[in-house]
Amino acid sequence: MVAFGKKMKERQIQGWQRYYINYKLMKKKVKQYVQQIEVGTLDRRHVLKDFSRMLDNQIEKTVLFLLEQQGLLASRLARLREKHDALQDQPDISNVTELREAYRAAGQDLLKLLSFVEINAIGLRKILKKFDKRFGYRFTDYYVKTRANHPYSQLQQVFKHVLYHPTLDVQGLGAVVGAISRNLHELQDRQGSYLSIYDQPVLPLQDPVVDSIKAAVDRLTNSTNFLNFLGQHALIMQDELPTPTDELVDDQRYHFMSLLLNLANTFLYMVNTYIIVPTADDYSMSLGAAATVCGIVIGAMAVAQVFSSVYFSAWSNKSYFRPLVFSSVVLFIGNAMYALAYDFKSIAILLLGRIFCGLGSARAVNRRYISDCVPLKIRMQASAGFVSASALGMACGPALAGLLQTNFKIYKLTFNADTLPGWVMAVAWLIYLIWLCISFKEPSRDTEENHRPHESNAGMLTLFNGHFLAWYFANLPLSGQ
């Protein structure tokens, strides 16, 4: 797979190279920090201060160039506006055509500027992600919080929202986009010079430049898009610069049935989590426990899931199939134990069954599969499917429990409203396991993925130490040595 730095360089606009964020330099600097810390020539506090200062300088360079280009475009559009106004009194077909081409040329330059913003935003997010991964810090959170909220921050000019979402704050370019679109609309032959984009004209504006601008702006401001909203909540981000080679690799690794199996795993797990909620209190009391134990029974699965996230994240660096098989087996055992606790009259077996269910949570694998193996062109839809499957499972769990209102025995096994949720889910996981073994296709892996364990470890470090790190960074002086 082509390295991000190389892809970024290929996408850079000729003549503007020195104004882009120097991703290669910062990546090299991060590597040097690691080496210097290992030999003891630098401490981590100095690294944070030095890297923050480097980022500030890189962003300032980019933002000042952006503002300069915005000003040039604004001045250019102001001159075109004067020519446009002159045409209102003395319309001339040749002058209208010439003016339209001038607006289109300005639109092409605006497209370059939008591309400039996008590539720099992705580069900044990537280098922050790399820094967090190598050092195990929540440096990104600290950096954005301190810079974006400061009244003199360069960061909030362009990148305020980029670091958390695949979006861009392009409000500063909004006036330029609007001016080009509106004036080209007025110059459209079939609509004369009296209608405006604000008048809801019958005929839409038909101009490839405006279509390209709209597509670029939509790509940069897609936070209002429902699929992106769901994708962000699934923590599955698209922050690469795709190339035809990447798309080919994605297509080779992508297998629809395997994706469907991951979504089915997500759905079944959420059903498993919530199916016991309506009956957990009665079940606990029938085994001689206090009603308050119900909360422990429900929460035991969530607590165990914290630990399962660690080993499933690490395991997914080597395989997707084996963790899913293990998850299904553990969940089958956990649900069977939950159901059998009634006949054994043991609250301990009940709790142990729920802990087993939590230890079988493969949601980290499900998210990782979508992030790594689904092509970019449908990744956001797959991410939306992940969140939708979770939400549907949460709704179906209690509803299914409401339907399991019966009471009978087969041999010495009791089937009633308390035990049926366990039996039903045990059967569901057994069927899923068979489907998994028949249909799942293990994707091929490239060398880059072998470095992912660092990311998983860093993620767990921030989970357990987030509050301490937030305090530490909030009190870290960054001005001076």
From TrEMBL:
Q: Which SUPFAM superfamilies match?
A: MFS general substrate transporter (SSF103473)
Q: Which CDD domains match?
A: SPX-MFS_plant
Q: Which InterPro entries match?
A: MFS, MFS_Domain-Containing_Protein, MFS_trans_sf, SPX_dom, SPXM_SPX_plant
Q: Where in the cell is it found?
A: Membrane
Q: Where are the transmembrane segments?
A: 259-277, 289-312, 324-341, 347-365, 386-408, 420-438
Which residues belong to any copy of the SPX domain? 2-145
What membrane topology does the annotation report for this chain?
Answer: Multi-pass membrane protein
> What keyword terms does UniProt attach to this protein?
Membrane, Transmembrane, Transmembrane helix
| Family assignment from sequence similarity | Belongs to the major facilitator superfamily.
Name the record gives this protein: SPX domain-containing protein
Source organism (scientific name): Xanthoceras sorbifolium
